[in-house]
Design goal:
Layout lengths: L2 E5 L7 E5 L7 H23 L4 H14 L19 E7 L5 E7 L5 H11 L4 E3 H10 L7 H4 L2 H11 L11 E6 L5 E7 L20 E4 L3 E7 L1 H6 L2 H7 L1 H4 L2 H16 L3 E7 L4 E5 L6 E5 L4 E4 L1
Parallel strand pairs: 4-5
Antiparallel strand pairs: 1-11, 2-6, 2-12, 3-4, 3-7, 6-7, 8-9, 9-10, 10-11, 12-13
The structure holds aspartic acid.
């Protein structure tokens, strides 16, 4: 079953929507993940209201989410089958389609900030592994100590997956979409990937068009869920292109997830913002924590 919801009414004001990953969380775990999303919106809301760019707002929101070990990105991110962190992140600006991304990045506390530096540098869009480390160091980022970012919970989840049991920590990627007071949109996404992934596997979160997309002419989207499926249908780009006919972001997200399920069998979640500031989400998983704020409105959160 695919669940969708429309939030906010559009009307041209600023707006921000974040997600804490499509998954199968419930009870106090889900409550904690919703709280993590609420905190990220709280932190970025002040920037949005002060007139910051949508790009700055989504970066700030994702950095707060990356720091929160209740979610699967950066600190507390899912581990590879070798027990290492390989992080994927991307960020995109809708005004000029500028984008930056990193994949298979070893522990750094804020992969999205490195993706932002790639965007600002402008020479390339995506750096991987050692090349991403070299780029990050050259731009003033210091690697983190892996023991500070790998949690006991992530190790337990990996042991369970390697023993062919369920993932004990079924939590997802983080992401954000925003529109600023000038009508510019942006999106960002960051993840540890999937517990037990093969070293070198890159998911959708680092790939512009799949896990992240932003275009002032369309809107912005961030995806979460089974990355191989998201990649194969270029989910974020496809969903934004369909927005004109779907009518609302929630409906476009619903249709995008329906298409992915039908064509690839994959499930996940999407947050979407339209160029008019309407926001909405959909998920084909049991849970997807989110939080949002928009002009003249406080913070709304759920899962
Ligand atoms: N989409 C992410 C990946 O496949 C995982 C997730 O969203 O939970 O790497």
């Amino acid at each position: 079953m695919i669940v969708k919801a429309a939030l906010g009414s559009g009307g041209g004001g600023h707006a921000l929507l974040v997600h804490g990953g499509a998954g199968d969380s419930s009870g106090t775990t889900l409550d904690g993940q919703i709280e993590a999303c609420r905190r990220a919106v709280e932190a970025a809301k002040a920037l949005l209201e002060a007139g910051a760019s949508a790009l700055d707002v989504v970066q700030r929101a994702v950095e707060v989410l990356e720091d929160d070990a209740r979610l699967n990105s950066a600190t507390g991110g899912a581990l590879t089958s070798a027990g290492t962190l390989e992080l994927d992140a991307s960020i995109m600006r809708g005004s000029d389609l500028a984008a930056g991304a990193v994949c298979s990045l070893p522990p750094f506390s804020h992969p999205v900030a490195i993706a932002r530096a790639v965007l600002e540098d402008g020479k390339h869009v995506l750096y991987s592994a050692e090349g991403a480390v070299t780029f990050a160091r050259a731009h003033g980022f210091n690697p983190a100590n892996p023991t500070d970012m790998i949690t006991a919970e992530a190790r337990v989840a990996l042991a369970s997956v390697l023993a062919n049991r369920v993932d004990t920590s079924p939590k997802g990627t983080v992401g954000a979409v925003a529109i600023d007071r000038h009508g510019h949109v942006a999106a960002a996404t960051s993840t540890g990937g999937i517990t037990g992934k093969q070293p070198g596997r890159v998911g959708d979160s680092a790939i512009v068009g799949a896990g992240t997309y932003a275009d002032d002419a369309l809107g912005a989207a961030s995806a979460t869920g089974q990355g191989e499926g998201i990649l194969r249908v270029a989910l974020c780009h496809r969903t934004l292109v369909s927005l004109a006919t779907a009518g609302t972001p929630a409906q476009a997200a619903f249709e995008g997830l329906g298409y992915m399920k039908e064509r690839t069998g994959a499930v996940g979640g999407l947050i979407v913002i339209g160029r008019d500031g309407q926001i909405g989400w959909a998920r084909s998983t049991p849970s997807m924590p989110y939080a949002a704020t928009w002009a003249q409105h406080g913070i709304m959160a759920g899962g």
